[in-house]
Amino acid sequence: MKIFDKIIYKLIFKYSEKKIYNSFHKSSIIWHFCTPKSGSTFLNEYIQNSLESRKIVTPFPKIRNRQHEICIHTLFEKINSNLNNRFLTINIHSPHNNFLNKIFSKNHKIIIQYRNIFQTIESYVDFLDNLVLKNIDIKFPFFFIANNLWVKLSRYEKVQLFIDNYLPWHINFIESWRNYSLNNQVIFISYSEAIRQANEVTSKIRDKNEPFNKKFTINMNEVNYSKGFERNLTMNDSQKKNIMNVIDRNVLNKAKNYEIYYFN
Question: Could you give all domains of the chain from N- to C-terminal order, each with its CATH number?
Answer without folding.
Answer: 29-263 (3.40.50)
